[in-house]
Amino acid sequence: MTLSSLVVLPVAIPLVAAGLALALARRPRLQRIVTVVALSAVLAVAVVLMVATDRTGLLVAHVGGWAAPIGIALVVDRLSALMLLVSSVVILCVLLYSLAQGVADGDEGAPLAIYHPTYLVLAAGVANAFLSGDLFNIYVGFEMLLAASFVLLTLGGTGERIRAGTIYVVVSLLSSVLFLVAIALVYAATGTVNLAHLAQRLPEIDPGMRLTLQGMLLIAFLIKAAVFPLSAWLPDSYPTAPAPVTAVFAGLLTKVGVYAMIRTQTLLFPDGRLDDLLMVAALATMLVGILGAVAQSDIKRLLSFTLVSHIGFMVFGLALSSRAGLSAAIFYVAHHITVQTSLFLVAGLIERRGGSTSLDRLGSLAKFAPFLAVLFFVPAVNLAGIPPLSGFLGKVGLIQAGVAAGTPMAYALVAGGLITSLLTLYAIVKAWNKAFWQEAPAPLPRVRMPRGMLASASALVAVGVTITIVAGPLYRYTGSAADLLRAREPYIVAVLGEPQDQLTFPSAAGVPGDGTGRGDETAALEPDEAHGTGSEG
Amino acid sequence: MTAVPANLVLVLLIGVLFGTGVYLLLERSLSRVLVGVTLIGNGANLLLLVAGGAAGGPPLVGSGPEDEMADPLPQALVLTAIVITLGLSAFLLAMAFRSWQLHGHDEVQDDLEDRRIARRVARGLLAPNELDDIGASLAQDAAEARDETEHSDQRNDLDDTFVSPGLFPHRLPGPQHRSPLTSSDEEERR
């Protein structure tokens, strides 16, 4: 009971704190304290939720006391608990990094005043998307984090950021509209937007309609996750933002899309009719992304392309839709969030120390900043998948799952994954050689690195290494998370209650239009309407 | 069943809204994109409304027979979606204004890679008559590529040597030198 009420906190705390931080805009010190305390509290709650779900499996909170399917349910299962924990760690580390950067720059002016509230709204949006047990509430979570990300990406409003922001904003808005249209069609076809309720009703509708709904939801999420044919916006918009902003975007925003895909594919569409399509998309994402990275001469753009490329690994695991594949995909998501974020944080440090992010201008950093070299080297080889680091373990899991699937497409993906790892190593080594080993073309600027930035970046690198150390228990955890996802029944029962309770529900609530009574009568009629709207729209 | 013709009108309207919205979304000018986003957003909202089924009485318990009430959930969803669209449209508008402040227009520039290739073509590093996938030659692309941020992305491509100003006679050193009122200069370039 008390544990269930904890579930709302990861969304509620940052939102309340955001309001408070906005009210304290003229008191920068107090504002910082509010933000740090709020995000630390979220981290503590996430740890408790992770431990609790490891024991019990699922926790459900019915917001406002309205039971599902009428009210909005917030659900934590093992997958969302893990995502929440990893994202809270990353959000807190990046916040400390940006605080240290702000202090070092003496930056107490206007941009910082809105930075904290926006950042907190972003945290709330990410948490809401991870916890929501309701399709429309996932949309609201997406919009929260997108609106916050628009502000963060265009912070300061310089020409280049406005240009990059324009592309990002328009693409995001388009994917949101697609998502909204998909929700409207889902509601027309089934009469509900609650995920557990949908899981019960979707098998009853026309298979062709179901495929349409699945496709529309997938397209919306594939844009958010930056999977290949829909990924061009990412490398063009992320690198221009301030380093901490790029880091948190790279770590979290695309993974929210991946999470939404895992959730809807496993819970709503377990028959996996689009798996082959996802496999092709995953292969193309891996290869096209990494070839883009190889061609880059700017470290932030290079990292953005590796980000796109490695999303392919997660989609690969999801598309296998076996227990091993899902488990490895979830492990890979956790690994990739920390590693990619720390690489972007370190790129920010490199920019600071070397005065540029262009690989042609950097050099000699290994000699003048050896600690920075270590900070870059560890997550970089981790990304490329050098044993024994977690990137290697994640890829091994995926490749084992691919070989176990045994289809020609799965083998093609295994080969593609190996090539991608090799090319990632090539891109990383190129960056290492140029930035750290080559003789600097121009003398490095004499700057001191703020200790706080180094400390928070090293903390995140250490978290990445910790994932390697706890890989055994973590794989056990992701395995049971995958079991829970594939079983589906525990989720439905936890949200809706036992089947017999559900029948008495509509009359007890007294609201027509949502109850099963109406649903049964109109379910046969509404798909036809939906077909009509679908073809017109 | 009396609601069916009304639904058809709504459905046609949704189609028109989406069609015009997509057309506007493909424009370069951000203010047109904004109008397109608004139209598509309204189309999606109407779609949600249609998804709720036939119109009926106000969904207040006790105000009338329950089977004549409208479905309240889509209305709640539409209200939420309208608020979100409003906020994001305001942001888009602010961005268009900022872009106009900086550059004197609100057109979206080309991707960095496109601009880089266009510049190389202009310097004869690539064959200009090589056709790209839509059949436009690279020389045409180069002529069309917008290049306001040239000064700021040069740090990204040191492999490109200095571009002599003579190749782009209309280019001014940077956006800060251009007042918003000299947009005729932009028109001329197209």
How are the secondary structure elements laid out?
The complex is a heterodimer of chains A (537) and B (190).
Chain A: H1 2-6, H2 9-23, H3 28-56, E1 59-62, E2 73-76, H4 78-104, H5 110-131, H6 135-153, H7 159-190, H8 195-201, H9 207-225, H10 233-237, H11 243-267, H12 275-295, H13 299-320, H14 323-354, H15 365-368, H16 370-384, H17 390-405, H18 408-437, H19 451-469, H20 471-487, H21 489-496, H22 499-509, H23 516-523, H24 526-536
Antiparallel strand pairs in A: 1-2
Helix pairs in contact in A: 2-3, 2-5, 3-4, 3-5, 4-5, 4-11, 4-14, 4-19, 5-6, 6-7, 6-11, 7-9, 7-24, 8-21, 9-11, 11-13, 11-14, 12-13, 12-18, 13-14, 13-17, 13-18, 14-16, 14-17, 14-19, 14-20, 16-18, 16-19, 17-18
Chain B: H1 3-25, H2 30-51, H3 72-103, H4 112-122, H5 138-144, H6 150-153, H7 184-189
Helix pairs in contact in B: 1-2, 2-3, 4-5
Uncertain parts of chain A = 501-537
Question: What percentage of the residues of chain A does DSSP assign to strands (E)?
Answer: under 5%
Oligomeric state of shown chains = heterodimer
Give the C-alpha Rg of chain B. 25 Å
How far do the termini of chain B sit from each other?
Answer: 55 Å
CATH topology of the largest domain in chain B: Helix Hairpins
Total strands of chain B: the figure is: 0
Whole-Å distance between the termini of chain A? 45 Å
Beta strand % of chain B: under 5%
Mean pLDDT of chain B: 69
- Binned, the helix content of chain B reads 55-70%
The topology string of helices and strands of chain A comes to HHHEEHHHHHHHHHHHHHHHHHHHHH
Q: Overall pLDDT of chain A, averaged?
A: 84
Radius of gyration of chain A: 23 Å
Strand order of the largest sheet of chain A: 1-2
Tally of contiguous helical segments of chain B: 7
Tell me what the structure shows:
The complex is a heterodimer of chains A (537) and B (190). Chain A is mainly α and 537 residues long. Chain A has one domain. Chain A is built from 24 helices and two strands. In chain A, helix 5 runs antiparallel to helix 6 and helix 14 (323-354) runs antiparallel to helix 19. Chain A starts with a helix and ends with a helix. By secondary structure, chain B is mainly α. Chain B has two domains: 3-56 and 70-103, Helix Hairpins (Orthogonal Bundle); 112-189, no CATH class. Chain B contains seven helices and no strands. Chain B has helices at 3-25, 30-51, 72-103, 112-122, 138-144, 150-153, 184-189. In chain B, helix 1 packs antiparallel against helix 2. Chain B is elongated. The N and C termini of chain B lie far apart (55 Å). Residues 1-5 and 148-190 of chain B have low confidence and may be disordered. Chains A and B meet through helix 6, helix 7 and helix 24 of A and helix 1, helix 2 and helix 3 of B.
